Amino acid sequence: MFYSWGVGEQGQLFELRRVRGDTPELRGLEFIEVEAKTVINRVPGNYLPFRWTINPYRGCSHACVYCFARPTHVFLEMNAGHDFESRIVVKVNVAGVLRSQLARKGWRGEHIAMGTNTDPYQAAEGKYRLMPGVLRALIDFRNPFSILSKGTMMLRDLDLLLAASEVTDVHTSYSIGTVDEDAWRKTEPGTPHPLKRVEAVQRLNAAGIPCGVLMAPILPGISDSPAQLRATAAAAIEAGATHVSPMLLHLKPGVKEEFMGWLEREFPEKVSDYHARYERRAYARSADRAELDRKMRGVLADLTPPSRPAPARFGGRRRWMASDAPRHTIDAPRHGADASRNRVEAEQLGLL
Fold this sequence. Notes:
This protein is of the alpha/beta class. It is built from 12 helices and 13 strands.
């Protein structure tokens, strides 16, 4: 353990307390404990169904090779590769600061999303247990919220989620890009098994907490075959997912470099194809999105019982009542770079 000094987002100095992982499941991780000044963050843009987020951690030991949040570590003078996966910033006072912010007269009780930039139920949560304090604060102030995660540790807080659902709106989603064993092991080495996540979806819905599935990202040539898509969608539907939303891979600067280095090691035969797809763009081509749309329509047509036909209108913007669940949505192609960027980021963050 040692101490150093860092600079906050507003230029203030604060003390960093660095702690090494001290149990087998945390071995190789370094935790950088900080005292946050604020924890409710405004989301830029006006195309999302919410404007505020909470991220108890920065960096993520799930180590997903495609993670769009990797470049956030660069602002902390760390790298988007190994540092992002192993040097986790912990906002140890998140619950207390959250209570102070929720109590302010200017706070209007708007929806708060969690899991938008780092997973709140990654391995660090087993050590620091920040989420129970966060949830209790949201319960006490009756503030609506949603959680996106790959961590089955969310089930630990099921009682708190149920208590929250009695006083406010609560939604959850699990990110399950594929249930293919080989693709999962290579792309998400630090995450729980996808079938464990499917089980968590089932348990949350059975308990009365709405939980959907984000099939993301779908990786061209790695996890996008009709058989792979069908297996993942079928597992989600069987688990009672309130929605199943597929999304193709996108590679922004800072992420693209890390991903392409990984691709050269694991799938060298696919490098040229990915260069063609993403060399001058961060988001999937309209033709690729249309192809995924076609595949998913075929998958869902096979999986949807005749008594509950697939919806004629597709797209992440449609709102369904709980009585309509499960919902199985496909993202209709849209035109223009801005529309594409807004749609993808809305899917990444919205999940509602």
